[in-house]
Amino acid sequence: MNILLTGGGAPGAAGIIKCLRNGNPEIQITCVDINPYAYGQVLADKFYTVPGAGDQKFISEIKNICEKESIDIIIPLVTRELSLFAANKHNFYKLGINICVQDAKILHIINDKYKLLATLQRNGLQTPEFYLCNDVDQFEKACEKLGYPEKTVCFKPALSNGSRGFRVLSRDIDEFRLLFEEKPNTAYIHYESAINLFIDRVLPNLVVMEYLPGPEWSVDCLVDNGSLLYCIPRLRNRMNGGISIDATTVQEPSIIDFSERICRMFKLNGNIGIQFKQDINGLPQILEINPRLQGSIVISVAAGVNLPYYGILLCSGQKVPQVEPQWGIRMCRYWEEVYFDANGQSFTYPFF
Fold first, then answer.
1. Alpha helix ranges (H) inside the chain
2. How many angstroms separate the most distant Cα atoms in the chain?
3. With b meaning 16 or more CB within 10 Å and e meaning fewer, what string describes 201-237?
4. Measured between alpha carbons, how far is 286 from 291 in angstroms, rounded to an integer?
5. Are 130 and 210 within 8 A, CB to CB?
6. Coil, helix or strand at residue 303
7. Which three-class secondary structure state does DSSP give residue 113?
8. Total-model pTM
9. What's the CA gap between 171 and 153, in Å, rounded?
């Protein structure tokens, strides 16, 4: 089986490659990325540099690579590529190539955080309190409705990923402590600073919502047209830039039940990620849906369930094994390097 993996330099690509090789060592993996120095060049069997998803040549370049490498399945890891792949899914299928991607109509909803929350709310699923804003006046009114400054409030762009644009408004910010005791990647911002940034600016659609103070969860699901095959919640013990660097698999019934209802409602298919955070009462509230393989899904293999590999089995119409996940598995991450010579060729340095 020949797999094409996009986003060969994405944070989760290394773990996903490990998962696929663990499932079947004979799999041939071709990685692509916009960066010629993406580390996927070292880990994959073949590597190509491609234009970004915003380039008109993106799909044609991917098609050429697929034909050259006899690709059977495409696994997109880059959120911005998903809609393009969904729109061209049937054209690739005619060539005998399956793409692990949701239908375009579903992506239109779940990739937009406001549309996602509004749809869940209309269908009777619990959501945090939220408002849509696209100018400073609406932003001020939303904060007032949410109880700011007595209550902490947060906001994020409706269309974003990787924690881009996410900020927390709190009047209890201790800037002195943040300056001298925290690294300069804090999500906190003063209300007045946000207002000054927004005045006389054209804002993207912002979702302004109640701040959820409880633990954060990321859930890796495998779904067969709305039917949940696997659901592995992991508690995000520590994060860096929105990426889990310390996580534990936990069998949490409320999270599993909520995930199943979401997958069934949208009739999702394949590998899906859902993120939750608990509110002040301990209830899980949805943050977002990642309609693709998540970057920390590698923990599923250690828990006995190779979700990325099972995902390509499902995509290719093969039988998915039934195994029981192991709970309480903890994953801690560390940095690892790859090397390139002066000509841009990768090589391995024999440290060990």
1. 13-23, 40-43, 58-69, 82-87, 89-94, 104-110, 113-122, 136-145, 175-181, 191-198, 253-266, 299-302, 307-315
2. 60
3. eeeeebbbbbbbeeebbbbbbbbeeeebbbbbbbbbe
4. 14
5. yes
6. coil
7. helix
8. 0.93
9. 10
To which residue do tokens 């663990």 refer?
Answer: 22
CA 150, CA 86: separation in Å to the nearest integer?
Answer: 44
Q: State the fold for domain 129-210.
A: Dna Ligase; domain 1 (3.30.1490)
How far is residue 50's CA from residue 40's CA, in Å, rounded to a whole number?
13
* pLDDT block averages, 10 residues each, the chain of length 352: 96 95 96 96 96 96 98 96 97 96 96 96 96 95 96 93 83 79 79 90 93 97 97 94 91 98 97 97 95 94 97 96 97 91 84 60
Neighbours of 257 (CB within 10 A): 12
**Total count of residues recorded for the chain:** 352
Distance CA 175, CA 189 (A): 10
Say whether domain 107-111+213-332 belongs to CATH 3.90.1300.10: no
Q: Are 220 and 294 within 8 A, CB to CB?
A: yes
CA–CA distance, 311 with 292 (Å, rounded to integer): 10
The partner residues of 47 in beta bridges, in order of sequence, read 31
Strand 346-347 relative to strand 339-340, pairing:
antiparallel
Give residue 253's identity as a one-letter amino acid code.
Answer: P
pLDDT tens by residue, 57-106: 999 999 999 999 999 999 999 999 999 999 999 999 999 999 999 999 99
Query: What is 59-116 written as a DSSP string?
Result: HHHHHHHHHHHT--EEE---GGGHHHHHHTHHHHHHTT-EE----HHHHHHHTSHHHH
The DSSP symbol for 10 reads S
Q: Cα–Cα distance between 121 and 111 in angstroms, integer?
A: 16
CATH no. of 2-101? 3.40.50.20
Domain borders along the chain are 2-101, 107-111+213-332, 129-210
| Residue of 224, 335, 330, 201 lying closest to 272 (CA atoms) | 224
Strand partners for 238: 246
